[in-house]
Amino acid sequence: MEVSILVPLFNEQENLELLMAKIQETMAPLGKRYEVIFVDDGSTDGSFQVLERMHAENERVKAIQFRMNHGKSAALAVGFEKASGEVIITMDADLQDDPAEIPNLLGKLQEGYDLVSGWKFKRRDPLSKTIPSRLFNRVTSLLSGIKIHDFNCGLKAYRREVTENIRVYGELHRYLPVLAHWRGFRIGELKVRHHPRLHGKSKFGISRFIKGFLDLLTVLYLTKYTRRPMHLYGVLGLVLFLIGLIINLHLTWLWLHKVGIGRRPLLFLGVLLVIVGAQFLLMGLIGEMITSQDRNRSDYSIKKMLT
Questions:
Q1: If DSSP states are collapsed to H, E and C, what string results for 196-232?
Q2: 202, CA 20 to 30 Å: which among 7, 91, 102, 254?
């Protein structure tokens, strides 16, 4: 298989057949062997029934159904695992991502990139989504050092070796370019068309931006300190411990010279810094122990597969 097109979805029954028709229209002139993998993330409408009908009519259509809603990261993780293409294209099922961009993504990969992320240059969403998204992307770019504009765009192209070397779990799908960059892969960006939603409703609320920034802290920790937690906790702990030690040594010198220190707030600060510093050092040691354990447990439950 040359190309796998991976589509995570949740309650998108009205969009699936039209999306598949647009994918077929785009792929036909390319002459490439391809498959389309739909991952139903626990839909409560008739989405999987639509997928079953599409699978019966078209051998290229494959589908995976979760027993419950596990989130986009789990859907992408199982899709990456089951995809057989040398290139994997991801897109959302809401028809806002344009399948006609697939040839452009494939062409951009040929320029030497390992992952190409779409950039919704003219985004067709309300301000309640676009303004927080711009802030989110700028902060992520600044902290991660990756100069792309739209980390959360669902339309991306991956070489197979990228998906085999990054592990997606929790809510880390927003940061796949960051995880890939940390692994040494070359990241590119491509302006893509974005369409307004025609059917259904958005599954994302304002809470996703709060979770997004918390996930950003997770990713920054994972990419910079996951193999060396002592470098983070140890430095913080050592600095706090030394400041507390210096304060306490100063107070000890005063006490030896008959100066009362029992009611000084500085005494409590010095003791607190020593204790907190020691705790950070212990956290670093525990982190080093944890990183020696390999976590390979799957966090999703598959109900049915159509292959």
A1: CCCCCCCCCCCHHHHHHHHHHHHHHHHHHHCCCHHHH
A2: 102
Query: What size, in residues, is the chain?
Result: 307
Q: Which of 262, 70, 227, 79 is nearest to 156 (CA)?
A: 79
3-state secondary structure of 253: helix
Structure-block tokens of residue 72:
């986009």
Q: Residues 37-70: pLDDT tens digits?
A: 999 999 999 999 999 999 999 999 999 999 999 8
The long-range contacts involving 120-124, CB below 8 angstroms and separated by at least 24 positions, are: 120/150, 120/153, 120/192, 120/194, 121/149, 121/191, 121/192, 121/194, 122/193, 122/194, 123/194, 124/96, 124/194, 124/195, 124/196, 124/197
Look-up: residue for tokens 């077929």? 24
If you ran DSSP here, which 8-state letter would residue 194 be given? B
Residue 14 corresponds to which tokens in the numbers above? Answer: 């009205």
First to last CA, the chain: 14
DSSP state of 49: H
**What pLDDT digit, counting tens, does each position of 64-81 carry?**
999 999 889 899 999 999
Smallest CA-to-CA distance from 150 within 182, 110, 193 is with 193
CA geometry: angle 54, 23, 115, nearest 5 deg:
120
